[in-house]
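Newbie here. two chains, one complex. Structure please?
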Amino acid sequence: MENLAAFHTLHQVDLAFFVNTAVADQRLTPTKTAPHNFSGGPGALPQPVLEETQRAIMQVPGQPFGLLGISHRSTWFRDVVDEAEANIRELLQLSDRYSVLFLQGGGSLQFSMVPITLLRHSPQAAEYLETGYWSHRAIVEARREGPVHVLWNGRAAGFRSLPAPSELHHNPEAAYFHYVSNETVEGLQFHHSPGHENVLRVCDMSSDFLSRPFDASPFALIYAHAQKNLGPAGVTVVIVREDILERVPDNLPAMLDYREHACMGSIYNTAPVFAIYVTMLVTRWLRDSVGGLEEMEAINRAKAAELYQAIDASQGFYRGHAAPEARSLMNVVFSLLSPKLEQRFLAQAESAGLYGLAGHRSLGGIRASLYNAVTPAAVHALCGFMEFFRLRYQDSDEA
Amino acid sequence: MENLAAFHTLHQVDLAFFVNTAVADQRLTPTKTAPHNFSGGPGALPQPVLEETQRAIMQVPGQPFGLLGISHRSTWFRDVVDEAEANIRELLQLSDRYSVLFLQGGGSLQFSMVPITLLRHSPQAAEYLETGYWSHRAIVEARREGPVHVLWNGRAAGFRSLPAPSELHHNPEAAYFHYVSNETVEGLQFHHSPGHENVLRVCDMSSDFLSRPFDASPFALIYAHAQKNLGPAGVTVVIVREDILERVPDNLPAMLDYREHACMGSIYNTAPVFAIYVTMLVTRWLRDSVGGLEEMEAINRAKAAELYQAIDASQGFYRGHAAPEARSLMNVVFSLLSPKLEQRFLAQAESAGLYGLAGHRSLGGIRASLYNAVTPAAVHALCGFMEFFRLRYQDSDEA
């Protein structure tokens, strides 16, 4: 638990008790110092990063102006982009065969740029996994560019599980294979990396990128948009292997051509300076304050374990959406016995300073997102609240 | 001069004198209170906007979190987008026939989205004006999608002038007509709106949007990326007429389909929350503090007049790039007698607190960008410095 202690310190969490003014159950005294943000995204960012960002708005040390007055062609900003890239390379121990790009347009633009690059002129279909809301969105966009073979589809079973490796029968000639490592809406996460050694592997890691170590070497292309663990909304990281750059068709719109961005070191046109700067600070925080991705994963595992334990111990009052082996460490999705009770839960949670817990609009229910910057103290406060709420309502007529 | 007085007040400029420590010419006492930012972009933003942004980073009034902790699907952010749109509509007196969209990808993505929408399936060529660096970039991207007829080209004459209406012979059947209202690199600006009543008129207003009033009614589509007058880098405004939305081809990538963005009120996917929020503050500042676009234009005209006067009165020491009738109010581009003298000018200007004056990397020389947030005091300080520099070097061997 050394990691947790360090985490408390670096988030400057104090352990004062909170009192829920709506109730006075003396058995429950979950810790709370500030409102806690469980939003699915834009979600929480680390407090020290927010503080440094705030200072930089008016004055960047060593510069005549603040963050919003500095040109994207300045040496200072080139250094910011270079450090963000270097931090990501170090955190992932990434080989030189990959370019690290900072783009605009979010995961949604990557849903199109990937098949525009690899499928539009391919004689073979691309293979996709349909494991939830976001992988479906990726498939819709891919189908505009060429044939898609859905290798496995969890829709009929309500997107509650993920395929085992033995269930996936790849075509070694496929244009590429695409999956979403973590489905934020349904709270499903791969705990291994599916794929076939002969098929280009492409992954949307938007919601778990930099939350744990992983081996990048089997991947042809990885993308991750903010704002989850990475930085503020408005920037998307793409990690692309050199052989993929060689496959980019000629005469694409420049903004959709990975080569243009790689060639210009991510500053092809006016870059989103603010979003990239904060991303640099987040990656620096991960490297220096957290100590790396193994440490981050240990903290994230502990947070998720506490919350899933609260669900599992609730005697069916809280019901997890995902099958246990597919549970996400990032997004914990569960329901209560009725929509009316869920509304009451959300309202009372906000009164207790616990925000952003409504499920995605497509699924309803409750979702607690436990991204890197969500503190163990926040999760502990949530679990305390859940226990209080259960004891109060489990035998009521409303349950 | 009432506008200038008001502008001083709202920028909280005090009129203390500055002393250039490198020199002590007592005839010259230009005003200076802080470093001044003449960058071509990202450029200066209004000081009150920066201050409010800084506060919002940690705490948005009435919200549990700061700006970077609030979901793009929150009511609060919907209101931010709606106010930014309403402010732009009010400033431009825009008709309901237009949608106002906040997108990612900059002008560069619009260079492609416009011809993807209007040229890819058109039997007719699109008409473009090649008036400088940025219109050339737009033409390169348009040619990927279909035939382009360059109606007028200023390249052979060094991009120093703009066409008179009588020089433009439109084909009434053209797919559309595209021009750049202000060329930031060469410092050229249209002071009328070229076009033909039967041809869809499309304009890149990136660098003079919201710097002056204009009649939007002849336009089919207008786009403007930040960071010039609009807000911080990372957001692009598109104003698109309803009949253009009806012409969007089916099955485009969703992120390139104006209809998707219009249908979702600019929140199709995770929006660049920060950039749109600051854009809302800038438009609010224009409306409430400046008083509107007529007032803004009067201030901008006075600033540019003082600087062009300094060039014209320099007996050829400073040489303006643009023909007088095509001079930009936004970007004042000039050269000195030698590149060596220009380097000295830039270095001494920085010592005097005057930053961002290097010309665009494609042209060299000097460029002073006078966007909305650049104060008259800043321009006055620059003119004072220029006079000092001229007196010191005009008879030296280096000149």
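Moderator note: The two ends of chain B are 36 Å apart (CA to CA). Confidence is low (pLDDT under 50) at residues 1-32 of chain B. Thread marked as resolved.
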